Amino acid sequence: MSPKLSVRHVFKIFGAGADEALARLRQGKGKEEILLETGATVGVQDTSFDVSEGEIFVVMGLSGSGKSTLVRMLNGLVPPTSGEICIDGEDVASCGPDRLQAIRREKIAMVFQHFALFPHWTITENVAYGLKIKGMPAAERRATALQTLEQVGLGAWADALPPQLSGGMQQRVGLARALATGPQILLMDEPFGALDPLIRREMQEELVVLQKTLKKTIIFITHDLNEALLLGDRIAIMRDGRFVQVGAPQEIVANPADDYVAAFVGDIDRGRVFRATDIARPSETLHLEDNCQRALDRMQQLGRNALYVLAADRIAGIVRYEDLVRDGGAPRDLLRPFSSTVPEAKLHELYAHAARGLPIAVLDDGGTLTGVVELDDLFACLAGGPMPTHRQKREHLDA
Amino acid sequence: MLSPADLVTIPFDDWMNGFVRGWLVPNFRPFFRAAQVPISTVLNMLNAFMLWVPMMASTLAFALAAWRWAGKGTAIFTVLGFAFIDMIGYWPETMTTLAMIVTSVLFCAVIGIPLGILAARSDLAWRAIRPVLDIMQTIPSFVYLVPIVMLFGVGMTPGIIATIIFAIPPIVRLTNLGIRGVRHDLIEAAQSFGSTRWQMLWDLQLPLAMRTILAGLNQTLMLALSMVVIAALIGAGGLGLVVNTGLGRLNVGEATSGGVGIVILAIVLDRITQGLGEKGFGPQPSLMRTLAGFFRAAPRPGGANPG
């Protein structure tokens, strides 16, 4: 499948002498050098990425890293100095103003950091703005706007004015306004950056829920790594106008590309990044019919203190080495209750299970055992050590 | 001491005489005479209308407008002030002055707001318009009275043209300022939804700049009022003529009467247009409620139920 959005070698240079600055940039000169020599400011340099349909792509960077410029180039608010930006294969950077206007009306919508609601219009009129621009009749666009407002839970506020709403509610209106035109791509420029921490968390969770039904292609800008890790299917870390690292949240936390990324990643909550599937070991199991000796042999051989016991394909229970040695009976008589989780569960959700002191079963949707989370691995991962060595084997678990 | 004048003298006044009398007036007089037709038409209609409407009716209309936009105090002041003007016998002159002012402000708005919009949208246009406005605001109005008389003759209409030149800069400046002052992220939002420049102007820039534009309109109105006496020097009538006549005859009473009329008119118009700027054209009490308000006691604090 071809990507929904494809960005190729995009540069943005502000100020006069952009061409000269571009030439020097290609010679490998740095941002400061070019500013001194030509007076031009490098906003974004040589950035390329693809975003596939339905994906949330987060661009994370500090202020001045060029992330806001980058997102504004995607819908042509800032024209790139050079490079291609293709939406469904069509280059936004080089198409004419009429075509760009049509793309903005049909395909791509934006949510702004400070909401950018029109203060002289009611909430409904704000949400209907994109439809008005497209020339939809008043009654029809009001109906669509009200429907979209319901979607973000603000139906009761349809006729209020923006200043009457709290920040979080205003941003819901901003989101509804972007969604009302039915765009395929949503650009979100630090949408939750101006909100209180609690409201921000709430909005992040709501976006995740909403995205499950919307399945939009989202380009999300943030300066908050935790937000990036929570929302992003993939994350790009940006610095001085270029991507330092692009990857899934787990990849970025596990293998930071350089010291800059490592410094960011250092103090994040790893329990909220890694999933059970990231640290699960392959599921070595016993059968219900196995006798005591065989069970002990297998445990010694695998170096494990407890193993799951299967009856047919289902888990019958878990049996501990300790119990087998003390009791000497068949595993089937020594089964203990066990804890299970889903592969996508974040590690912080496993803490309660870990209290049992037994390995946690990872079950797929059908209830089949796909792997086991050993507590040692869980703690090792949280402690920030190298990822468990059996990561390679994870691939076949995912497959 | 040697001074530049010993070497070269420039007959600047002769040049200007030659330019205005020798070239502009003979060649363009018909053009300028024709150009004043719209102004004189509007002025004559307005003047006739103002003089036709009974004093009580126009006072009521102004009092209602004052009530709606500037509050009860201004409404009461309007009634008392207009009654005073009528009683000292200068009602017709006041209405003529009002017609002149309204005509000037109308043309200032019709010319000035589009110019302001143009200036806001193009830095080049602003660079061209700005020095012209600076000149218009600094040049003493007496300087352009003479060429105006030569080109347009004497009378009400040339007086209005002089008033327009004097009063137009604020509305151009403040329209430009208002539109340029619209928050950048709102402009970006409108662009990001694919709006055209016209859609952006109508939906966003003009409504959001309206307060500033109305403040400019208020300034223009006040400047127009301050030109009333000067415009009377070239034949404009109304209260300005009363003041000038009083001045010429050293009749303190007549001059003061005209002056008081101008001040009362100025206060009423200023308060109403300021109120308009602050409250805007947004949701307002209906005419019926405004009317009813005259006969209703002020709302009691706490909203206690009557009876």
UniProtKB/TrEMBL annotation, chain A:
Gene Ontology MF terms in the entry: ATP binding
Signal peptide (UniProt feature, chain positions): none
EC numbers on record: 7.6.2.9
Bilayer disposition of the protein: Peripheral membrane protein
Protein location: Cell inner membrane
InterPro entries xrefs: AAA+_ATPase (IPR003593), ABC_osmolyte_uptake_ATP-bind (IPR051921), ABC_transporter-like_ATP-bd (IPR003439), ABC_transporter-like_CS (IPR017871), CBS_dom_sf (IPR046342), Gly-betaine_transp_ATP-bd (IPR005892), P-loop_NTPase (IPR027417)
Catalytic activity: a quaternary ammonium(out) + ATP + H2O = a quaternary ammonium(in) + ADP + phosphate + H(+)
Broad class of enzyme this protein falls into: translocase
Keywords of the record: ATP-binding, Cell inner membrane, Cell membrane, Membrane, Nucleotide-binding, Transport
Domain ABC transporter: 5-265
Family: Belongs to the ABC transporter superfamily.
NCBIfam families listed in its UniProt record: proV
Subunit structure of this chain's protein: The complex is probably composed of two ATP-binding proteins, two transmembrane proteins and a solute-binding protein.
Protein name stated in the entry: Quaternary amine transport ATP-binding protein
Organism expressing this protein natively: Paracoccus aerius
Phylogenetic classification of the source organism: Bacteria, Pseudomonadati, Pseudomonadota, Alphaproteobacteria, Rhodobacterales
TrEMBL record, chain B:
Recorded topology in the membrane: Multi-pass membrane protein
Keyword Transmembrane: yes
Bilayer-crossing regions: 74-92, 98-120, 141-168, 221-243
Chief place where the protein resides: membrane
Keywords, in A-Z order: Cell membrane, Membrane, Transmembrane, Transmembrane helix, Transport
Superkingdom of the organism of origin: Bacteria
Keyword DNA-binding tagged: no
UniProt-listed Gene3D superfamilies: MetI-like
The ABC transmembrane type-1 domain, residue ranges: 94-273
SUPFAM superfamilies named among the record's database cross-references: MetI-like
Similarity section: Belongs to the binding-protein-dependent transport system permease family.
Protein name: Proline/glycine betaine ABC transporter permease
Annotated source species: Paracoccus aerius
Biological classification of the source: Bacteria, Pseudomonadati, Pseudomonadota, Alphaproteobacteria, Rhodobacterales
